[in-house]
Design goal:
Two copies of one chain form a homodimer.
Chain A: E1 2-4, E2 12-13, H1 23-31, H2 51-67, E3 74-79, H3 83-94, E4 101-105, H4 108-119, E5 124-129, E6 152-156, E7 158-159, E8 164-165, E9 177-180, E10 197-201, E11 212-217, H5 234-239, H6 249-265, H7 267-287, E12 293-294, E13 306-311, H8 318-330, E14 333-334, E15 345-348, H9 355-372
Parallel strand pairs in A: 2-14, 4-5, 4-6, 6-9, 9-10
Antiparallel strand pairs in A: 3-11, 7-8, 10-11, 12-13, 13-15
Helix pairs in contact in A: 1-6, 2-6, 3-4, 6-7, 7-9, 8-9
């Protein structure tokens, strides 16, 4: 099969998720769409019990294990339901009788996790919060007080709405650290051994929406009461190698392609260097704008994945900000508007966002400032 | 964008699910994969909060409403987690205090639903079972005894593994009838008003795996205790129009394309006629084979979606059956082997399976019988 392509119109996509996918991955999906590897069918049309799909599933897992350096005593599973389902699944599986959950509160996503703990009647406590700092930073180590026998400590490694990101994680000793890593997984090297459980909706750095990757220390998956609904127990998915019921096969296939793409990019260290370069370029443009652009996030907590900033003045000039989004769109740059709950601008720099895209954006920002500054 | 296609190898795909998709749908997906409607991005890369995706979501719902003739007092939602998640979600949402669930037991899928009722400690009873008939038919009306004040009556309209299908549904009066319609939704006209809730994993007649369509009478969705996890309450998805958290956007998009395809095929009545013709052709070949092919399912319960049969002799000759699958595969026909739990053959005739495919199969069956009969 050959494709002759005329005028494919692709924008620079700064969406916060679902978000940009690498062009080579999309091209491969397109190439294989009617006939995957001579099977005569699309991956979407394939039985999840076929050797072909079992291979696709195993390759996606192997790719994650390799690039994220996941040790053997951790299971890697593909769970349906979106990362938000994990706000309930984590406590259903990891709570110990009469022990509480320590939650570190850094904004919208930890608030959602907190809401499900409350709803489930699960004993918990906020072990630290930066609410008084409007979540414009993550907690500093002395601000965190942990319960020595907690069921687990919970945090969100990157906060898409607030634009903050953890760099050094709290030491939790024997208490497992559980991380919502939806928006920065695979963006930088991390030591999986520091965590008891990591979960991530795929739709930022791993693939399309519709599947959640869970990395869980195998012994912790055995904590769950066996009367928890079958599909909500991690052990079900571990035992069945993510094939207990029909999985979101096409999304898992794309995770595998994303891992192939990471390999072709030089692995996670190379991807991390590129992410550093992109963030440096964008924050540099903001900080060097003489106040025309303003990032409210404290410097040491600034996210390399989601850069939030205001335009026109420190608190943002909404008229100018609206114009920014409109002119950026006309210049072929999508997804620059901030989250509806906070306003301003938000630019997401996930792995698939190229240096070329960020350069185009910063060029646009210089020009926009010249015109409106 | 244009495609020049050379030698696309497509098999006749009789998989039980995930299963064949219509070629025009796959071609449309391919055409739009890098740039959906001039947006400059794939549907996979689109924010679920964008007007573009809201339109895709609304179109998929409107298509289902039109083709399945869904009344306004029913909500139509796209729920992540696969149909198996519904085995827990249905009781979590629809159980009334101290009332029991009446379950009509017709095989593997109702057994799974039963397992989750037991696990959840939910009062229930088997209102009818054809286990003594090895599930080779569905119950006859006099065999069904219903509880007048049950929370709901539960059945599975089409049993993929046993090859049975309901044609006339039991009258449940004021008690809502809940149907797992995963494997025959959109294959024939049904009166939605007879049901309180219908759910269906998309991966047979509606699209790819990874999304479940739930059609629920709005008043029933209000039964749920508000302390049920947010994502497991139907009302959450109804209120948010399936956009509470990031939905499986690409799968929902394909549901919309499938509904467009149904329209182009002439609507559900035309699709149903075609399904009847396909089933008549295949069952006719089996019944006219002088016993070489044998369908164990009682005639009035035979599924038009999943045709199960044995080859060689009534109980099946495993050597000949293995050869059947192998020779069929060589002749470009995939997915003819029976479910691992029962053996024999199984041929699925979902909407996307063409008359041409079934004709090729029955031609092959005549030839195979000549050679091995």
């Amino acid at each position: 099969m050959t494709f002759s392509m005329i005028d494919v119109n692709r924008v620079f996509n700064f969406n916060a998720g679902p978000s940009a996918l690498p062009l080579p991955v999309l091209e491969r999906v397109r190439e294989e769409l009617l006939d995957w590897h001579g099977s005569g069918m699309s991956v979407m049309e394939m039985s999840h019990r076929s050797p072909e799909y079992e291979g696709i599933n195993a390759d996606a897992e192997a790719g994650l294990r390799k690039h994220l350096a996941i040790p053997e005593d951790y299971a890697v599973i593909f769970v349906p339901g979106g990362a938000s389902m994990q706000f309930s699944m984590v406590p259903m599986n990891l709570c110990l009788p009469e022990k509480r959950v320590d939650l570190i509160h850094t904004g919208t996503w930890t608030a959602k996790a907190l809401g499900e703990l409350t709803k489930g009647g699960i004993p918990h406590r906020i072990a630290s919060s930066t609410e008084e700092a409007k979540f414009m930073r993550v907690p500093r180590p002395p601000e965190i007080t942990l319960t020595p026998d907690a069921s687990y400590v919970y945090l969100c490694t990157n906060n898409t709405i607030e634009g903050t990101q953890w760099t050094t994680f709290p030491e939790t000793g024997m208490v497992p650290l559980v991380a919502d890593m939806s928006s920065d997984i695979a963006s930088r090297g991390i030591d999986v051994k520091k965590f008891g459980l990591i979960f991530a909706g795929a739709q930022k750095n791993l693939g399309p929406a519709g599947v959640t990757v869970v990395i869980v220390r195998r012994d912790l998956a055995e904590r769950a009461d066996k009367n928890v609904p079958t599909l909500l127990q991690y052990r079900t998915h571990i035992k069945a190698k993510s094939l207990y019921s029909t999985p979101p096969t096409f999304a898992v296939y794309i995770i595998g392609l994303m891992m192939d793409w990471m390999e072709s990019e030089g692995g996670i260290a190379a991807v991390e260097r590129q992410n550093d370069a992109k963030a440096t370029l964008l924050y540099g443009t903001i900080d060097g704008s003489g106040g025309f652009y303003h990032c409210p996030v404290e410097r040491e907590s600034r996210s390399k994945m989601n850069v939030v900033f205001r335009v026109g003045k420190a608190g943002g000039d909404e008229v100018v900000e609206k114009r920014f989004t409109q002119e950026a769109a006309l210049a072929g740059m999508a997804g620059t508007a901030g989250h509806r709950s906070v306003g301003g601008m938000r630019v997401s720099l996930y792995n698939a966002v190229t240096v070329e895209a960020v350069t185009a954006l910063t060029d646009f920002m210089h020009e926009f400032r010249r015109k409106h500054g």
